[in-house]
Amino acid sequence: MLARLSRFTLAFQDLAKAVVARRFELFVTLALAGFLLLFGATALYVVEGDIQPDKFGSIPRALWWSIITLTTVGYGDVSPVTPLGKFLASLVALAGIGLVAMPTGIMAAAFSDAMERRRKGGEA
């Protein structure tokens, strides 16, 4: 089993180098994710907190909804009912799509750069 994994060693090394090379961009993405989580939870707490106190009655309660929405899982167990709440939820959901795409694009470009360097005989 371990012998079979050895052929992936170069790919794992390239992946590790890609993460290190793009660590600042990935950190910015992580910081943006934190901001969007807090913004989404706070906005829905302000708009929906009085109407649905069991679901949005505090920012920590609203964080569950924000995490599920930003990661595009969308269980549907908690959802806004007011027009403004639905509008804000739509914005948060769209931001979630971009939030998933950002680190994916960063890592794909970094991994592609590492593979190109390997093909050209440069740094491995």
Descriptive terms for the model:
124 residues; single chain; 6 helices; mainly alpha; Helix Hairpins
Describe this structure as you would to a colleague.
The protein has 124 residues and is an all-alpha fold. The protein has one domain: Helix Hairpins (Orthogonal Bundle). It has helices at 2-5, 9-21, 23-48, 53-56, 59-70, 83-119. Helix 2 packs across helix 6 (83-119) and helix 3 (23-48) runs antiparallel to helix 6. The longest helix has 37 residues, at 83-119. The radius of gyration is 20 Å and the shape is elongated. The relative contact order is 0.15. The model has no long low-confidence stretch (mean pLDDT 87).
Would you spell out the secondary-structure blueprint of this structure?
Layout: H1 2-5, H2 9-21, H3 23-48, H4 53-56, H5 59-70, H6 83-119
Largest sheet: none
**N-to-C span:** 25 Å
Oligomerization state of this entry? single chain
What proportion strand? under 5%
Overall spatial form: elongated
Mean of residue pLDDT?
87
Number of domains: 1
Rounded radius of gyration (Å): 20 Å
Helix content: over 70%
Label the structural class. Answer: mainly alpha
CATH architecture: Orthogonal Bundle
Q: How many alpha or pi helices?
A: 6
Low-confidence stretches: none
